Structure formats: structure tokens, C-alpha cells
């Protein structure tokens, strides 16, 4: 079934986005605290030159990011391609390290990753709430 284009928004300088992805078959992509830390380190390494992070939520089988594409992105480059490729590199780096550490193989993330343009104040404010309230304590 084709993905609705609103979930594959193109990246442009100065725009805000809700970015999210999940693992295949609801498998865990974070097994230990070190996995979360490593994922955040990779986000910083591969994406901090391109986006500013406003909120994030890492859950065992998926994640959410609230980002803004930096205004300093050169308008003569393909911003969408550049940022999409940086996410791809980050996902590959995480999966390779995860698979090596846990003696596993194969992909982990659904493709393509979802990104939705935040184009109104209501979505902007509700996204911050959604990301921070997404984790639930199960008793």
C-alpha cells in the first residue's frame, strides 16, 4: 500500500518536522541504556550540522524527533537529499553496530522513514506534548 505523501515531506531550510520511524515487526531496537545513548550520539554526529533538535522520544521499538532544518543550509544544494542521506547513514551506522554487538543480521528500520511538515501552530504545540507524553509507564 502506498504511503501518503504527507508522511514523506521534503526537507527545506527553516521548516519544522516531525520525524519518526519504527522497527520491523515491532522488534526492539533499544535493548539497553547504552543503545539509547549510542543512538543519540549518532543523531548528533550525522545530523546536528543540518537540523536543530527540539524534542525527542526513544522507545524500545520506535522513536519520534521534533526538528527544524537549519537556516544556514545552502539553498544551492539539494537540502532534501542531503538530510535524507544523513538519516540513511545514521540508520546504517546504528544497525551495523547493533548487529555486530548482538550477533544479529539484517535490517531494523522500516523504510522510508516518516517525516511530516509542521505547518501550523496547533500541530507545533501538540507535537511537543505528544513526544513528551508518548512513553507510558506500564504497571
Going by helix content, strand content and strand pairing, the class is: alpha+beta
* CATH topology (fold) name: Alpha-Beta Plaits
Count of separate DSSP helical elements:
3
Percent range for helical residues?
25-40%
Per DSSP E runs of 2 or more residues, the count of β-strands stands at 4
Number of domains: 1
Query: How does the overall form come out from the CA principal axes?
Result: globular
H/E series, N to C? EHEEHEH
Distinctive features:
139 residues, alpha+beta
Summarize the helices and strands and which ones pair or pack:
Blueprint: E1 16-22, H1 33-47, E2 51-59, E3 62-69, H2 79-101, E4 114-118, H3 121-133
Antiparallel strand pairs: 1-3, 1-4, 2-3
Q: Could you explain how this protein is built, in words?
A:
- This protein is α+β, with helices and mostly antiparallel strands and 139 residues long.
- The protein has a single domain, classed as Alpha-Beta Plaits.
- It is 37% helix and 21% strand.
- It is built from three helices and four strands; from the N terminus they run E-H-E-E-H-E-H.
- It has a four-stranded antiparallel sheet with strand order 2-3-1-4, covered by helices on one side.
- Strand 2 and strand 3 form a beta hairpin.
- The longest helix is centred in the middle third of the chain and has 23 residues.
- The N and C termini lie far apart (36 Å).
- The relative contact order is 0.24.
Summarize the structure.
By secondary structure, the chain is an alpha+beta fold. 37% of the residues lie in helices and 21% in strands. A hairpin with a 2-residue loop joins strand 2 and strand 3.
Amino acid at each position: 500500500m502506498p504511503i501518503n505523501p504527507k508522511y514523506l515531506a521534503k526537507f527545506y531550510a527553516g521548516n519544522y518536522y516531525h520525524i519518526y520511524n519504527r522497527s520491523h515487526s515491532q522488534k526492539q531496537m533499544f535493548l539497553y541504556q547504552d543503545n539509547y545513548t549510542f543512538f543519540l550520539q549518532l543523531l548528533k554526529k550525522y545530523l546536528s550540522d543540518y537540523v536543530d533538535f527540539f524534542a525527542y522520544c526513544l522507545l524500545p521499538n520506535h522513536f519520534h524527533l521534533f526538528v527544524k532544518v537549519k537556516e544556514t543550509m545552502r539553498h544551492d544544494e539539494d537540502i532534501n537529499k542531503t538530510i535524507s542521506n544523513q538519516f540513511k547513514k545514521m540508520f546504517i551506522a546504528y544497525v551495523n553496530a547493533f548487529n555486530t554487538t548482538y550477533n544479529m543480521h539484517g535490517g531494523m528500520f522500516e523504510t522510508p522513514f516518516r517525516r511530516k511538515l509542521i505547518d501550523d501552530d496547533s500541530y507545533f504545540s501538540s507535537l511537543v506534548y505528544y513526544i513528551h507524553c508518548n512513553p507510558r509507564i506500564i504497571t
